[in-house]
Design goal:
homodimer, 357 residues, alpha+beta, Ribosomal Protein S8, Chain: A, domain 1, seven-stranded mixed sheet, 13 helices, 11 strands, globular, Ldh family oxidoreductase (chains A, B), Malate/L-lactate_DH-like (chains A, B)
Chain lengths: 357, 357
């Protein structure tokens, strides 16, 4: 049985299953701990609930960098002070297919929860609709949002800028953020098809790890101040720039993300977002665009056959031993739900609990 | 002065400007020649006009593989017989944000011309709208369609599957087509921001050229039948598969394109399209999805400022010596329009003119 007391973990019953240096927590315990820390630092109950939900989902899916670890950075953003701790998102109807939510400089999750309800109402009437989230602090992965929409039977696409760290193809100076793009497709009787990736070659944190350990970078991750390929982490981070994945094609996609999730929706580009942060290292503040498509409007009366077409596509991928994008994450989810607990590194848990002091 | 008589070209006045082995034709002459050949092979006047327009645009922009050269493959598709030569596209209104056009097994261009008018009407009312084109033969680039929409002040995104030649990341057998994705953003007083690229690492024709010349392929273009990297063009084309750009990220994007321009709109995946072709080598038959977004619905009352934000983004790319995706094409366009003519290889012109015999 997992621990029922956070402060005095009792691992005896499951000692064999829990990795050394880790503590088992139920998903409820993860949620409660995240919630307690965030409210302790002044975040409103509604925001803390919404954030604790995505942090718990991250731990459940063993996406550790988006799990309990994020309580630390989220608290840092709260301490930094610019984020509105009790912001109430303001919905504005912009047209039959467009809803915008002004997050009022709060975290993005609550704004998404409020806005996605209206997005779903709209897409049920129009067939395609878009949600713009403005003025939010954003730190989470996009897949929790994609999954929240896809479980209502729609396909969904989401994009955000971040902080300008990534040079365009052929350039040397940062323009783009790590600019994630995520997409989901509903499947009957199976986990949805979901991808969520940064359009940078790798995460910035990955390059930080190379710097700390003094290793040289793989080629294609970054350039120096002159735009020449660099395998030195410090050069890439401090003088040059990161690169996008996929050369000029990735660079073009990243530009599209800047435009659709920035100027289109009246919000900041990654360069503007980095300037606003002004070295504080808080969660980036910017906008987000989410597009939903209702397959029932697009299918010419053969909805079931069309769904089967998609299933054949997935089978032709998995049937040859290739993986679908979220396969590992869904396997972790099954494992966590079957076990009834997740495993948090002791040191991380200590750091998080200290934030309650 | 460019030639005014196709059959007896007079190059005297511009001999110095025309490359050896090339013939100068005005854009009107390109259009007329394409139109004559296509109607000569039984294509209806409406279809021939629509196709001649995109072929002329291809030559004008020096995208030679989408210019006069396509008259050859288009005629081959007409001779193959499956394409409906006088198909009349049928528009169906699927909802406030969705219009579908059944191309009735004709070429895609006329269906796009018909459908894009409705798409624009819809997006003006809803803020975001989608056009699905079904049952069309498709051979052209997507940028002419993107530009046709963007000149009305909307942002646009288009995707199509093709023929299954490309393996998923981690696989060995073809599942995806070269699956192009194209995007456009309107700019006041400047050519629009437009990209249009295949999600395969390279075009299949490029690998064919390597086979013909006996050169080894660069790494990352293809795999052998076991999924191991291959630099042998014949192995990749005949036994293994091509690869997407950008590894698993490109593979995920290509999957999204299959889903949105295939099963979502009730049309074929690249694998189904290749099966239908059954070795004929005609233009692929499949569907297409086009999404348009009207910035006026998304902007929170600061439309001009938001546009300027996008311009700053472009400046930060070009200002450091990096190129915007269509920059070369737009330079070619200016050149062609200033010259008043384009240059067609004599051998190609001969091949095309022979199709009139």
């Amino acid at each position: 049985m997992p621990n029922s007391n956070l402060n005095q973990p009792d691992q005896s019953a499951q000692a064999s299953a829990v990795k050394p240096g880790h503590i088992a927590l139920t998903l409820d315990e993860v949620h409660q701990l995240a919630y307690r820390v965030l409210t302790h630092h002044g975040l409103s109950a509604e925001h803390a609930q919404a954030i604790a939900r995505v942090i718990t989902a991250g731990e459940r899916d063993e996406c550790h960098s988006h799990g309990m670890y994020r309580v630390l950075s989220c608290t840092r953003t709260l301490q930094h002070g610019a984020v509105a701790r009790d912001a109430i998102p303001v919905v504005s109807d912009r047209g039959p297919g467009v809803v915008a939510v002004d997050a009022q400089f709060g975290f993005s999750q609550l704004a998404f929860e409020v806005g996605s309800k209206v997005l779903l109402e709209k897409v049920r009437k129009t067939g395609i609709a878009a949600l713009a989230i403005n003025n939010c602090y954003h730190f989470s992965a996009l897949w929790p949002e994609i999954e929240a929409l896809v479980e209502h039977g729609v396909a969904a696409l989401a994009m955000t800028p971040s902080h300008a760290w990534v040079a365009p193809a052929g350039g040397s100076r940062p323009v783009f953020g790590t600019n994630p793009i995520a997409f989901g497709w509903p499947r009957a009787g199976a986990q949805p098809y979901v991808f969520d990736f940064a359009t940078s070659a790798v995460a910035r944190g990955e390059i930080e790890l190379y710097r700390r350990s003094g290793r040289t970078l793989p080629k294609g991750w970054g350039v120096d101040a002159k735009g020449s390929p660099s395998i030195d982490a410090a050069t890439v981070l401090d003088q040059g720039a990161m690169l996008t994945f996929g050369g000029y094609k990735g660079s073009a996609l990243s530009t599209m993300i800047e435009l659709l999730a920035g100027p289109l929706i009246g919000d900041m580009t990654s360069a503007e977002s980095l300037r606003i942060d002004d070295g504080a290292g808080a969660s980036p503040r910017h906008g987000e665009i989410v597009i939903a498509l209702d397959p029932r409007f697009f299918s010419a009366g053969n909805f079931i056959e069309d769904r089967q077409r998609a299933e054949k596509l997935f089978e032709s991928i998995t049937g040859q031993g290739a993986r679908l994008p979220s396969q590992r994450r869904f396997a972790a989810r099954s494992r966590s739900l079957a076990n009834g607990y997740v495993q948090i590194p002791e040191a991380l848990l200590r750091d998080v609990q200290q934030l309650l002091g």
